[in-house]
Batch of 4 targets.
Target 1
Amino acid sequence: MVFMDDNFLLTNETARVLYHQYASSMPIIDYHCHIPAEEIARDVSFSSITDLWLGADHYKWRAMRSNGVPEELITGNGDPFEKFEAFASTLTRAIGNPLYHWSHLELQRYFGVTEPLTKESARRIYDLCNATLADPSMTARGILKRSNVKLLCTTDDPADDLRWHRLIAMDSTFKVKVLPAFRPDRALAIEKPDFAAYIKGDLSRACGRTIELYSDLKDALRERIAFFAENGCKLSDHGMAYVCYAPCSDEQAEVIFRKALQSDGVDLYEQLQFKTNLLSFLAAEYAKAGWVMQLHYGVKRDNNTKLFRQSGANNGCDCIDDYTPCAELADFLNSLCVKDSLPKTILYSLNPIDNAAIGTIIGCFQDSSCAGKIQQGSAWWFNDNKKGMEEQLTSLANLGVLGNFVGMLTDSRSFLSYTRHEYFRRILCNLIGTWVTNGEYPCDLTTLGGLVADISYNNCNRYFDFGLTD
């Protein structure tokens, strides 16, 4: 078998037809990523493949640490080629890791490199990639166009002025839509030592008002939601340890909020009450705005204190948290549903053992307002590998309606990560093709092709109401 050829991951004829005739040419909507809008607005170029590949990729950093690479060649100031060579040496040993597939897909699609990356081939591939990056078309915008990206959503704090998004929107020559996504984590993080400073500082300045009362905070966030909506925002995103449910009145939330602003100390149950109350308020506002609410949970962050002090957050030292009280998630969604304030919602757990629980929970809150109103999000972070994707897709198919799934996202800071959509589509087509080969679904290519095209692109466009046309 040829290494990563045109039929990579496509093990049956139905899969090959579905991928090549229906999935491969579909455009990309990346509705959740961490690419800075400023880099798109400035149309940045990249000094080397090391800059582009290793500059902010904690997946690669984790693998390199596991291979005993010195931190100087990971997040430090080491020589760019030596960093690249160290990653090449790591990749050779990373058999079975999705990094091996992603990296070689990126080399193939963007640089025309079809040979495996090894320590021996590193210099040759490094020079070829850098020569390609010197081409004027290989800028941030050029790579997005080349990737067939039609729209992407960044991740933005409520206090962001969105100036880079506005600059992009004013440029009629750039056809890729770049929309903000509302990420109010800092407004909910009442347990953090910088909570009061954020509320009194960044958020107050963004609103042009003093925030002293809990009602002031809600008014401020309501204003920022309107501001984001004016700039094209269609969705929110929340990163949390878990979705809690500890209901309290606004009066109780006011007392807790004042304590936090005065640094009087807020105990754990008060933190949960505040978060429940504020997230419920935000969800109702999202429902009014017609937004989608994304809830990412199940992560324990910054576990290596030594590395955190050295290189900060997002350095590859996060892990799966096994505390995910799904009953509280169901209670939270129910509390919104009974008030008719449950927005379209996507649930992502970093812990794969939650797949079945999520599949059953989303089935409790579907309604006729939208097909697949409550979604199980794509296999996320530590799960966006072949097995993780197959398990998420199979669980969703077993317990829900797979044909309404809104599909893949990158959740990445890299402009080359769009091959992950290809990776997902190949896995999707192969899974469906296997079911057909096993006689579990008829070989109706018109219906199957429509399902694949919908999951790859169309469902997402409809669900978020992006309004994209071919």
Note: The mean pLDDT is 96.
Target 2
Amino acid sequence: MSATDQTTAAPASSHHWIANQPYLLLSITALCWAGNAIVGRLAAGHIPPVTLSFLRWSFAFLLVLPFAWKHLAKDWPAIRGRLGLMIVLSITGIGAFNTLQYWALEHTQALNTLLLQSAAPLIVAVWSLIILRVRLTAAQALGVLLSLCGVLTILLRGDITTLSNIQFNKGDLIFMVALVIFGLYSVLTLKRPAIHGLSFLAFTFGCGAACLVPLQIWELSARPVMALDAPNLLTLFYVAVFPSTLAYLCFNRGVALIGANRAAPFFHVVPVFGAIMAMVFLGERPQAFHFLGFALVLTGVFVASRRQAA
């Protein structure tokens, strides 16, 4: 059995059923990350970006460490053997991406970041071609296109002329760099050593937070310190538990099960969930373009993530 097979294999008992449901796992990831974008935007101006990212991953590391400790000790020889790759994964997927995302949200609107999020599957496809020599299949390309059309339908409210009113700025460029970095992380996770999922989370969370220490020291001297009030503490609790611990556990498992290219279209589900949250929390009423957009996104994800016949 190969290292990848060992990583993806799971017990057959019903207790582990969810661990073998990649589409459910990736949908949970998308839901958590949609909430992260909303919370990150609300936190802008209240919690500096490096502070938010550093505390998020430090708390997430402390959350998973008690559960991961025995696996981490057992897997340490494998981690040490691929230490360079594990550090790169920690820097890209944990430290750099999220810090840049929170920084971007200080300078741009939610609509812009949602539009840019739609480019993620294409970025993953480029990294897959460069690193793994894996090309998009015709079905995957069609699925990406369909789900991209669905996202645009929702974001533009069915009116393509809305594009003329969008102004891209510093925050958009920062977020685009963040997506390129996360696309690299998504593909490199397939080269990680064959270790337990909790070992992977604990190492990358801890190492990613540690890599932010120099930036954290600089930010404390350059920007106002975060206020220890209830909204900020609730924000830290949310980002440490849901878009960090839960989402990354689900995402890494989903990619291990179906691969980066087939998982990438689920990036399009993030803005769909964001639109649903806007309806629930902001009182927006569903309209025809919402249903059309949702249908296109779900169709695209289904087409792109299907296993190809041998």
Note: The first helix runs from residue 3 to 8.
Target 3
Amino acid sequence: MYKLLNDLSIVEVSSFVASPTAGLYCAQMGAEVIRVDHTAGGLDYDRYMLTGEGRSLSWENLNRAKKSVALDLRSGEGRELCVALAAKTGNAITNLPEKSFLSHAAMKAAQPEGAPDMTSVRIMGWHDGRQAMDFTVNAAAGYPLMCGPEEWDMATAPPVNQVLPAWDFITGAYCAFALLAALRHRDATGEGSELRVPLGDVAIGTLANSGTMAEMLYRGADRERLGNAIWGAFGRDFRSKDGVRFMVAALTPKQWGGLVEAFDAAAPISELESRLGVRFEDGDRPRFEHRHALFEVFQTIAGDRNWSDLSSRMTANGCTFEKYRTAYEAARDPQLVTDNPLFGPSPANPSGLDYPATRSFANVPGREVGDPAPAPFLGQHSEEVLAERLGLSSGAIGKLIDAGTVALSDEGKHYNR
């Protein structure tokens, strides 16, 4: 937690991954992020995996350092309160449809005099209004059909989905950037902005920005599957004599020279160069084009040495490599977690569980980094926010609570969902 954005307040009305991620990144930099949910929780409030008490570990981690307001978003009064809260704050992140009650126009129209000109970021599915989610836009962009063993036939082999919802996280990060860009513009001109970011455009746009789209059009065909090899450079998984699998990448002259030295592979590499009429130190192209022959050389050597020897030699020679870990192993790895300053002490999580929690991914030298903050209980800040932001009296808030329009903290409640 840094205090770089401690003068910024944002209302977030969202669910699932991309939109909460945008708010999370702002909160980790010090912004006050007020997440508004339905009184029973949003669509992601019971997102798998759940604890025995029904607490979502996904929700708990995507909503750290935020405040929570619970309103009956199915009622007219609850929706009016949500719009008023966003309008008064002047900054909103949402993935609700533009034609919902929380349109940019509705928020702007409800702004009181003196409020900063409305600035909103809205995550959409596709640019034409079609619905989408990470796995569907990934399918559309073509990446799953690039994955899989080399020997799989391109025409008949199945797609390989990635487990990580990467487009959701990339979209969330992009939305946080887009919001801050719009706020910088507002600071300079006083003019707010309506920003719409389609998840599908992030995926297909990344396909273009990476050069992959141009490559396919230039080829006039699809790229072949590469298994675990790195496209356009030298890199692949190998297995040591004692059965440890590890990934190696050599994209620079230093990385390549260090790898050859670590594997003591100068002699077989020289022999291979003479036979093929190439110099592998000339760059990525010869190493990639003759990758199969190189893979055989390095795997033969790796298969004769134990992991402890190989890892020591690669470390000494500045190689780029990592042993494959399961996610459970990664979560318990001292180098990745316990000894990593990214992680701080476990806060008081709503689930009651203690586990490592992240600070901001950015390390700002010379500035104090605070400890990770917990996610709120649903509705934990309803009274506080409605009083401070909308100026409602305790009596008015009490009537809203009695009517079921506002809900208070669900701390202590157990959900068997």
Note: The radius of gyration is 26 Å.
Target 4
Amino acid sequence: MSFTRGHSALTARVPGWDRLSLVILLITSMLLVACGGGGDAEPTETTAPVSGTVAIAGDPTPADNTAPTSADAEPGIGTEEVPPSAEATDSVQAPSGAGTPEATAEVDRSKPAAVVNGEEITFEALDAQLEQRYGAQEIERLIVESLVRQEAEKRKVTATEAEIDAELTKARLSTQAQGQNLDQVITQQFGSLDAFREQLRLNLYVQKIIGPQVQVTDKAVQDYYNQNKQQFSTPEELQVWRVVADDQAKATAAAKELRGGAKLDAVIKKHGSKKPNLAEQNADLGYTQVQQLPPDVAMAAANLRPGQVADPAPTQDGAFSVLKVVARRGGQAKPLTAVRPQVETAVREAGISERVQGLLTELRAKAKIETQFKLPQAQPPAGVPEEQPAPGEPAPEGTPQG
């Protein structure tokens, strides 16, 4: 019986996922914390498997168990890459590097997983190793998803396909804005669009379960706005003039004339390089955001006030560059009245995020879970006292004795 499929890391490592911090990472970034930390996997007396697809966060910890599991999982989000198992019809990507194959075709479990100088490595041996290393984390991940699903059903919380489509659109727009290809990310990190949509569904459940508990007050909105004005500012743009001279003497003369108010065209004509590869760099760069300027220009111009000229700086071409910031615009925070809906959304998301840990801890603490793997001991939510044993009763296993 094969071990569950592994799960690749995504989270904040992928640029452009800031908008998904609530949509995707609410569950996955806090699971081990919510469930009381990590733990080594050891067999217990019970054998009830749990299925599901919520990814678990945390570093893989070697486990000592040898009991197989029948749980199968779809790809999800984690914070540490886990090797994939050898499922019968999965395409397996081999590690890159010298001496390693780039990829294999569909896995055939009727054949050995590998043959080394005539010695076979079986899929059973591979599965046992994966199970020992990652079994507890995978089971914990699946349990959390099952708990979220059950709680959603209990509260009659649903997530429609239209709502999932809307979250998918947000993800696509966010990744496009950062030059990422969402379809490629989904294929690499989740294996399929259906698996990604399932993650969106689970996180919608969490949002809807916790959302009613969050009160968006005027004070909370004002405080968030005051503390995060940069989020609601228009991008600052700089108008920059650049003169590239063949030597430092000409660059120094160009800087002096620019400080004296000389026109750019006149300075370029007098001191600018005539070499084709350098002459084309002499220009009014127009209004541009700092991060969109060439790195050397951005570093020199970022802290200049309008009218200031930077000292000549050597270039990689052996020439010298002179920059003048003609003007700056933007960078001002929009008034709260203009961005209040966005601020309220941010406050609501922050409130939900703060409560995720408590929800997951509460669900796990009151659940009856049977598994062959040793799981982290659930901790009570913040502010909830631990239940004390009655006088004369033995303390629960793992309780410190006085």
Note: Strands lie at 91-93, 103-106, 114-116, 119-121, 237-245, 283-289, 313-314, 320-329.
